[in-house]
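Figure 2 data, in text form.
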Amino acid sequence: MRIGAIDVGTNSVHLLVADIHGDGTWDVVEKDRIQVELGAGGLDVHKLSPAAWQRGLDAMKRFAEAARTLDVEDIHCAATSAVREAENGADWCREVRNATGVHVRVIPGREEGRLIYLGARADLDFTRGRVLLMDLGGGSTELISCDSESPVTIESLPLGHIRLTEEFPAPLTKDDLNRLRQRIKAELKPLLNEIKPRSVATLVGTSGTLRLLARMATMARGDRMPEHSHGLVLYRGELDTLVRQLRSTPADQLGSLPGMDPRRQRTITAGAVLVQQVMRAFDKSRLVTSERSLRDGLIVDWILHNRPEIDLLSSVPDPRDRSIQRLMDRFGADPVHAKTVQERSLELFDALAPLHRLGFVERRVLGCAARVHDIGHYIGGASHNKHGAYLIRNSRLHGFTAPEIDLLALVVRYHRGGKPKPEHPEMATLSPDDQQKVRVLAGILRVADGLDRSHSQPVSRIEVELGDGRVLLRAFAVKEAHLERWATERRKDLLESALRQDVRVEVVAERAATTVPGHRR
């Protein structure tokens, strides 16, 4: 079944069209956004201005026609702050219904927060504790403290980038900035009694303004720009620098700042100060972006109400695992070979830990890379490592940050073929430490893949001995493993150079194996 979701916000109207599958999963068919600034010039008087009324109506007509063209069977539409607060909001909804046939449901702030949570939940990492979701709209900001089961606290505050810009128009003097900060602090203070900063492990931002700030910060630090704005990391120190830069740049020159979206430059300064104050109030040093939001929540809510027996989240709770499994399913990965290579990779990673000194995140990325290292065969066998990296970078891998996706793609890219070199375009933007991570992880994956070169799982386990400048890898085979011995010998050179160790490989029959004292498993 194909359904549509329309989010009528204070700044923009969003359309999301999705195909719902029998197992409760869904695929995006079409996404669109029209910036209408429905709240512009009317928030302070609680009324939609004639110009904003017409812009909003035109956007709804366009999206209703798009839905018809795409054979959408059902449309769910929700309006938020601007329509909710406007005295003529009900009249506008009535005209939309008459002109398009679309019923606009005006939702309160708590319902807005619940839908944002539903939309973003599949991507959130709760392994460290509760998440604080921040959705910065034009008229209001929703803050949702949540765990994997439900939202714990939902608050909708009258703090939006359009509202604050109209209250404190640019350019912001020092006095204006202080008054703006005090205005925000006054709204946040009661909330801090309900959501204690210590109770929140991660801060996630779901709105366009937040993604724009993270994109500008990413460009400023010289990192590789991903193909999308999901999983970008915004650090508080970088945001402080951005606020100073935005305040000191003349309004007619804001569009020249790297990464700036001209559609948001009028309100970006007030939005940046708001994000800055939230990060300070909750003592968070970084924010991670999500492309999921209310419109996604409308889709999920439809599924929950129409197919209550579907519970994909409980069957695969980790969003990263779901993302990797979808890649494997979509591009036809051999699940038995992938699982075998993953096991060998993680065994090697753990045994070599005293040499590489990498941590949990790198181990997790390696395990994921092992599962999807061959998906590039979907495009072609030749250069399938490069094809695989392309597929990873251009897929929505929910649960991963942008730096993790980049590392995952590079490990797959270099799991075969030439060695990674600093002058390669893929490596040039990385720090020396990150380049070393790629070399180590790709080197491990090459060896692990070689240990199942025949895809017949002849190696049942491995043992590793660490000596003075050497690594002895002993592979125990339950059947003939000549191909594995040959492949591993050919592929060990990257691991040797990354660890600065000689790697010796022995393949022995399992039945003849004896435990070697002092070995690491």
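Caption note: The longest strand covers residues 26-35.
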